[in-house]
Predict the structure.
Amino acid sequence: MHTSVATFALEGVDSRQVAVEVDVRRGLPTFTVVGLPDAAVREARERVRAAVLNSGLDFPLSRVTANLAPADIRKSGPSFDLALAIGVLAASGQVPADAARDCAVCGELSLGGALRPIRGALAMAAGARAAGISRLVVPVQNGEEASLVEGVRILPVPNLAAMAALLRGECDPEPPRRRPPAPRPPGPDLSDVRGQADARRALEIAAAGGHSLLLVGPPGAGKTMLARRLPGILPEPGFDEAMEITRIRSVAGLGDGSLALDRPFRAPHHTISASGLVGGGSVPRPGELTLAHRGVLFLDEMAEFSRHALEALREPLEAGRVSVTRGQRTLDFPARVMLVGACNDCPCGRREGTCQCAAVDLARYSRRLSGPVLDRIDLVCRLDPAPPPSDGHEPPGEATDAVRGRVAAARELQSARLRGAAHCNSEMDPRTTYRTVRVEPRAFRALASSPGFASLTGRGHDRVLRVARTIADLEGCHQVSGDHIQEAIGFRVSRSLEMV
Amino acid sequence: MSQACSSCLGRSQLIGELAPAIDTALERRPALGAEVLGLDDSALRSAFGSVQESRGMERATVTGVEAVCRHSKRFPQALLELEARGLDTPAAIFVAGGLDRLENVLDGPAVTIVGGRKASGYALDTAYGLGRSLAAAGITVISGLALGVDAAAHRGALDGGGSPLAVVASGADVAYPRTNRALRDRVVEEGVVISEMPPGSPAFRWAFPARNRIMAALGAMTIVVECRARSGSLITVRCAEKLQRVVGAVPGRIDSRLAEGSNGLIREGVQVITGASAVLDELFGVEMGPDGPRGAAIELDPTLGEVLDLAVAGSSPSAIGAELDLAPGRVRAMLGELELRGLIARDRLGGWSLRQQ
């Protein structure tokens, strides 16, 4: 006798429906799993056997064959355990064979029969809705997360025995309870930063338009301190953004089972590999870039990252997504991040006065950044050396809340203007930039005739216009004025005048 | 009314027709080009093969090119000095961009900027900066529209709002080298391109040293930005010395072969050019300009001037804002304006330096 149970396999940050077919017939007692299972799936045989027996159920002393269809995609991870167990129970007549018909199940089993939480419950629930499956069984710990998807009834189950009871119609699990959203956790506050008026301005513009930012300065100037305060001044993620963040966290096993209310801040160490940064592996997993989606990717000591890793960032930063190709399949990971880099003035980090770096070392240092990354940076800001210790009487800097208010207002102007064409100014493509950035005609003529303007390349030109648009948004202006453009130019990455 | 008499045009035509033969004959020593032009018509013919009597001026009257001969009042008087100093005055010159403009351009002071085709980035920056600042100060910039220093000087002069004068070795209507076509068109638009070769003439090797004497004669001063030990720029310098014009050179790296020629000039004792102000000092006296005492080269609003001074002195934007009581965004806007106006340049990691003025 054979049965089929629906479940889901993770594929990038999406899920794909998989049918677990189990056949039980007379023969030597064996348990075989076919259909491209990886080691964790093959080991499921032992977990399933023990869990079934420890839940007071029988494991048939027969020839058991399980097939994971479609058989051409690789299945990995332990989330197929529950489907296998139910397939065995149904095929051996211990639960009604058609009980699991309009229902998909996901979950890892412990030897005692309890269900363990899985990665990617949100992605699986979304997959279930897309596939038109009305009920999804998940481990209780994943119930809240899965129930974020509307239109699928989530059945949280604590263990295999309860699952069997559910299938026999003996009990009906309560829908998962959603915890009330916790207040936004207080992060580090901008008022801790003393001085650095210029860098604060750069941070505010970057936050308001989602622009990438490079902070340059001697060690101890507060580059990291400023960068860590950036998520605090970004507007809270909307529901769609929060769902994207939650889904990625869940797939990476970093979620806490509820809707993400904070934007991610990822600060990988500079020894990270290219695939660690953008994602990869034989079963592709999201990299730091994707984990920072809708948040901040902070690359401290940016010049120390391997060239290969920085090079790998280029295309995804422009496209807003990473494509990882493994074997015949290509997976897309979302990657809309605010890139914040930090680096020293020079390799020894003591540029003013005491630096002993040779000119060649300095040139090499700035060249490491040049090609791959500076092209993608909208604003550069050099920090002042750390101010002398305070006597405690000087007024604290402006607090995070005040800055966030201005940033949120600027973002509202943007979304009203862009109407979905882009999330924020930094995501505008050249056409949208051209269409939406209106420069006062008089200011534009004055600019176009100035000698420095001619040296802007096409891409640099658009970059300046996008940043200028954000500065105008911060001031609530509908037209971009000459001052806005000049400020954008003041912050831009400059290159020496290009001549024949 | 034509500004060129038929005998002078005939002479130009003859040179144009003999040019390929001269090129072959001078293949090994193109530097003799200027001297060849000193020969009279019959000597030229006997030396480089006879062509029939001039076929008239059908080639000399190309659209947009005007001719002016030495017998015209509108002929640049500076070129007549060539003959007085033992060099050859061209019989006629051909002007693209208008004879009126040529007169205008040569009405005020003019400076010739020359240098190598292959030049260091420093030399290109310097040539550009000199060209722009001198043009902005109302001085005509003369150069040869070659690659490298010449092109940078012309670009600077155009960006400085001046009307540059280009003396070319090909016909005045010919874009040579082709990569400079857009630049040449800009020069014709804003200034003039002149040549002693008849219109349509390609650029022969011997014609470059020959045109150098014209560049030297038209400028009150000749500045070598950077050149190698054996360079056409040095021919310009020798002509300028014969004409008793002031000669200057920009100091280059002592270990750079690219600057061997120009540094050699400095050793000989020519003027050391450390910026546009050095040129103005030399031409008009210390702190003087074409129209009397010179103020700041470029008028700046006082706050902008203070921001410029502080930025160049190494103050950070935050410090400038604190010093002048400006909002951080305002400081950046002013720095952006200064950069746009070409007064400061930034290094990649965000510091500022004063641009060559």
Q: What stands out?
A: Residues 152 and 235 of chain A are 30 Å apart (CA to CA). The interface with chain B takes residues 195-201, 216, 343, 345, 366, 369-370, 374, 380-384, 447, 450-454, 471, 483-497, 499-500 of chain A (CB under 8 Å). The two ends of chain A are 80 Å apart (CA to CA). Residues 496-500 of chain A have pLDDT under 50 and may be disordered.
